[in-house]
Amino acid sequence: MNNSNTDFAALVGSRICHDLISPVGAIGNGLELIEMSGAASGPELELISDSVGSANARIRFFRIAFGHSGAGQGVSLSEIKSLLADVEAGGRIGYDWQGTTSVDRPQLRAVFLAIMCLETALPYGGVITIAHRNDLWDLSIVGRKLNIDKDLWGDLHRSEKRVEITAGFVQFGLFPPTLAELGKTLFMKEADDGFSISF
What confidence score (pLDDT) does residue 6 get? Predict the structure, then answer.
């Protein structure tokens, strides 16, 4: 995948997220009005509300991971932590963000793609820890029964791929060119009790 294809994919991602975020947000606002009016309540409404919240969080996450990201666009620390907390609320994976500053959007895009790659290794849930020190990102995971697809992860370093990228693993196709655009090199380390990457 060359840079022009990466840029086009980012524009498509931005368009899809832009078009979805408004109606999902409107559904959430409608639910709040229903709750305030007392017209309906109960587990059904709570389930819908939780689902809308989860969808909203994922769209916001995808907007950064797959959307267009111009240099100089920063994302504040509070916004990053709030977003990850919202994503965490809808699933079995926790996110421990240890950074202390805002992050340039192109850098955050790479981090979010890395998070999505690591999520595939946690089929039963777990925790992803994200640290940033001296311009180096360190991401590590712990969880029960890690599932590290060695061919899929190995393809991140290979020019000739062994695994065909499907929709569920599109992040693995976008991650390497995103790192290349940032001038970064990926390192991986597997241990008995976890797995980590840095770039």
Answer: 59
Quick one: which of 98, 102, 103, 138 has its CA closest to 118?
138
Give dist(CA 56, CA 123) in Å, integer. Answer: 22
Residue 190 backbone dihedrals phi, psi, to 5 degrees: -110, 135
Question: Residue written as tokens 């990201």?
Answer: 69
Enumerate residues 6+ apart whose C-beta is below 8 A from 181.
3, 6, 106
d(CA 89, CA 18): 22
Task: Please report which helix (H) or strand (E) contains residue 3, including its range.
Answer: helix 3-37
**pLDDT value at position 54?**
80
Q: What is the largest CA-CA distance in the chain?
A: 59
Separation CA 156–CA 47 (nearest Å): 38
Its pTM stands at 0.83
- Could you tell me which residues come within 8 angstroms of residue 157 by beta carbon, excluding any fewer than 6 positions away? 186
Q: Which of 91, 86, 84, 183 is nearest to 139 (CA)?
A: 84
The token pair at 41 is: 């309540």
Positions of the chain with pLDDT lower than 70, given as ranges: 1-15, 17-25, 27-28, 31, 33-34, 38-42, 44
Task: State how beta strands 187-191 and 126-133 pair.
Answer: unpaired
